[in-house]
Amino acid sequence: MFIPPHQASIIECTLTDCINQDPQKQAILAALKQLEITQKGFGSFFIAAGFLRNMYWDYAHAFSSPTPLSDVDVVYFHPAASEKTQDMILENELVELLPNIPWSVKNQARMHVKSGHTPYTSLEDALSNWVETATAIGVRVASKQHLEFIAPWGFQDVEDLILRPTPFFEQKLPVFQQRIESKQWLEKWPKLRVVWPKD
């Protein structure tokens, strides 16, 4: 059983409760903690994107079973080891721990190139430049089974079921719109609401 952070917000407690009711997500977080133990030089590994976002959307829609995970996005920040081959080594270790999970490991220290940004300075900086605010959240197991969350734009949009582009992607709205349409978020979770930037 996992424990919310000290002085946790209501939504952090809700997310923790949802994880504690989902054996698969508990196993995924336990595997990630094992990776941190064996790969101490890489710092903290978080699971971000749909792992938490979709889970909360399912909860808010009172779904009886969780939406299947299309992938499990593991993120970390290590400027000294930014080769893609390093990500594959870490990913293979997770596959050995949990073979049936669609792992996807990416060092965010190199992901600025894909998005055309200046180099990121931290994991939080990297996540703050993802497409949607609701996607830019992550979780890991800290000490003594306490969960640690990272959310550079906070949890309000997640809690309010809002899809909103981050500031960088306010200038690239076709990317934001294409993701909404291709992933069929509004069809899967009809309570979601898209908030477009003001002109």
Feature tags:
Beta Polymerase, domain 2, globular, 199 residues, 13% strand, two-stranded parallel ribbon, alpha/beta, five-stranded mixed β-sheet, 41% helix
Quick structural overview:
The chain has helices spanning 10-20, 23-38, 50-60, 84-97, 112-115, 123-128, 156-159, 173-183, 185-188; strands spanning 46-48, 72-76, 103-107, 138-141, 147-150, 162-163, 193-194.
Explain this structure.
With 199 residues, this protein is α/β, with parallel strands linked by helices. The protein has a single domain, classed as Beta Polymerase, domain 2 (2-Layer Sandwich). The chain is built from nine helices and seven strands, in the order ααβαβαβααββαβααβ. The chain has a five-stranded mixed beta sheet with strand order 3-2-1-4-5. Strands 6-7 form a two-stranded parallel ribbon. A hairpin with a 5-residue loop joins strand 4 and strand 5. Helix 1 crosses helix 3. The longest helix has 16 residues.
Count of all domains: 1
What is the H/E order? HHEHEHEHHEEHEHHE
Task: Work out the oligomeric state of the chains in this entry.
Answer: single chain
What is the CATH C level class, in words? Alpha Beta
Q: Return the average pLDDT rounded to an integer.
A: 94
Quantity of strands, as a count: 7
Range of helix content? 40-55%
> Radius of gyration, Cα only, in angstroms?
16 Å
Helix-and-strand structural type: alpha/beta
Indicate the low-confidence ranges by residue numbers: none
